[in-house]
Amino acid sequence: MILSRVEPRYYISLLVMGWGFAVTFAGFCTSFGGLMTARLFVGIFEAGMFPGCLFLIGSWYRRHQLLTRMAWFMVSNDIAGTISGLLGAGLGSLDGTGGYSGWSWIFFIEGAMTCSAAILAFFFIEPFPHKATFLKPEEKAWLLRQLEADSQQNNTKHEKMTAKGALHSLKDWKVLTGGVLYLAVCVTAYSISVFTPTILTTFGWGSLKSNLLTAPIRIASGIVSVLVGIASDKVKRRGPFCIFGYLFSIMGLLLVMLLKNGNLRYMGLYFSAIGIYICQPLVVAWCVNQVVGNVKRGTVTAFSVSCGQIGGIISALVFPKKDGPYYVPGISVCIAFQVVGIIAAVNMWICCRWENKQRDMGKRDHLRELPEEEVNNLGEKHPDFRYTT
């Protein structure tokens, strides 16, 4: 709701600067309470950035141009995770320098980098399309026409989000499905991100080697995520790719849980990461594709990401060290959530295909007889609109 009223560069750069400071000052903490307070502020500032960026990206592109862009955005998270892992391995050697522990130096350096990124964001992030400053008037008019034609909605570009509108949007089953799909993704995604080094140490590899070996997994999953995004946009399909991603990830998790050979289990981590990072941008783009208007797009993005944070909490609870080296309970929970994700994806796919066929047969054409203003405000209920399957 704030982002629909404030220029994106102010909103996003302020959030990034806020958590950059919080991370930096976490390095000075000398007690558990102080560290938890710093982490609380990191969470508060981070919470609005991710859905805000996705919402901004979604406002600039047509529905079947969107996934590739979201995949690139989320790949940047993989790149950051790779750099963070390598920095963590290297900065640990600074232990004792200046009287600070190695973990403090990790917070100092990464916090300073985040603050620098906030400054760059302020100067480079563009506003929403109808306020774009780098486009010529004729280019802006062309872009807005393309976006309007893509959504069959002619008056949403200035629409501001309200609590009432967001609550109304939550009654839409497609918005709720987005939350289920992203929750199913994030239980495994957070588990892979946080616990991969821990799992690797159970293979008999040292802590440094385990941290370094997380980098290739992230790189591979990022590359595949972008390639699948390009393919999905090209064929204008989401459902089959989403279901494949879940299944591929489940296969990888089974290898990690059931096999004893370290190299094969490491391959399983590749499969599970690749599969789940195929799904991560895909489920957000898919659900955004199914709705029209800033209010619903903003709601489905924020709701999905919020549900994903619950996945982070779940993943933190189901991988206790005592369950190593095979972590059967934790991996079983991840697989169970992905099965739920498959069920939700199949439901979305079938229901949207059925509704598209109804419209192809003209069974929604009676809506064209409504007054012109109401027809223009039908959003995804417009007879010409086709859901992405």
TrEMBL record:
GO molecular function list: transmembrane transporter activity
Highest rank taxon of the organism: Eukaryota
Gene Ontology, cellular component aspect: membrane
Name of the protein described by the UniProt record: MFS transporter
Primary site of residence: membrane
Membrane-protein topology: Multi-pass membrane protein
A Pfam family it matches: MFS_1
UniProt keyword Zinc present: no
Subcellular location: Membrane
Key words, A-Z: Glycoprotein, Membrane, Transmembrane, Transmembrane helix, Transport
Membrane-spanning parts: 12-34, 40-58, 70-91, 103-125, 180-200, 212-231, 243-260, 266-288, 300-320, 326-351
PANTHER family: MAJOR FACILITATOR SUPERFAMILY (MFS) PROFILE DOMAIN-CONTAINING PROTEIN-RELATED (PTHR43791:SF46), PERMEASE-RELATED (PTHR43791)
InterPro entries reported for this sequence: MFS, MFS_dom, MFS_trans_sf
Major facilitator superfamily (MFS) profile domain boundaries: 1-359
Membrane as UniProt keyword: yes
